[in-house]
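Board notes (copied after class):
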Amino acid sequence: HHRSIAMESLRNKRYKEAVWHLEQCLNTQLHSLPSDHPNLAETYSSIAEAMVKSHELSNAVKYYQSALDI
């Protein structure tokens, strides 16, 4: 649910809203998926993308790194 809202927010350039929904999605995934699950990498990457678009570059790097670590 949060992921679909986040994707809609990204399409409408509401990046901070997208980050919030993606982080909610990530929290759910972290509790229900193994730590090396590819969906986690996709969510980390999506959060980073939204952060880049909202000019939060230092935070984006952390999320990109988390995606790469998977």
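Comment from the instructor: The chain has a mean pLDDT of 97. The radius of gyration is 11 Å.
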